Structures are given as structure tokens and as C-alpha cells.
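Service request form, structural biology core

Requester: graduate student, group of Dr. S.
Request type: structure prediction, single chain
Budget code: on file
Notes: please return the result as C-alpha cells.

Sequence provided:
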Amino acid sequence: MDRLKHKKIAAARRAGRVRTTIKKSAERPRLSIHISNRNVLAQIINDQSGKTLIYITSAAKDAPKGNLTTKATWVGEQIAASAKKAKIGQVVFDRGDKKYHGRLKALADAARAQGMEF
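Core staff response, request fulfilled:
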């Protein structure tokens, strides 16, 4: 099997394992995180209706420049502030296929500092 194809399949398998253990409900929407090589994005998704409620990306014009950890911290603060405006207090954290450390942990800690619960 091609090496890159194998990496994609393994990442999809890890993400699927994470998503099957998440309890999906309308009261606690899912906070999904994606970290690319340049940007960080987070979205709050209502899985019952299949709609994205809030979407924040570090590719925005007012996003800070710098490394991905500072971008992830900014995205965490912004997603928590937007969720507070939309009266969403509790979410289920979906880390996808990533380990919970580094940039992902920085985003989660920034969101928790702003009052989001997960």
C-alpha cells in the first residue's frame, strides 16, 4: 500500500474511533478541531440537525501572526466567546485524529479559560 494512502486511512480510523465514543446530543454540540500546516480551525456542530453553529479559523484577517500554538490559543478564545454569545456553555470535545497535546491542548485550555465546559 502507498505510504500516504496508508497515513490517510490510519488517520480516518483514529478519527472514527474518537467520534464513536462521543455522546452526541443537541444539548451538548460537538466542538470539532482541525489543525493544518498553516491554520487552525474550530467549529461547533449540532449533529442532530447536521449544521455548523459556529466556525472560527486562524485564516481570518484579525487573527494573530506567529506560530500555530499562538493561533490555536486565539482560535480557542474566539470560539469560546462566540459560543457564549450563542448561549452554548457545554460542548463535547472532538480532537479528531490528533493527540491531546501541544496545539490542541493550547486551544482547549484557552477555551476553558473563557468559560467553555467540556
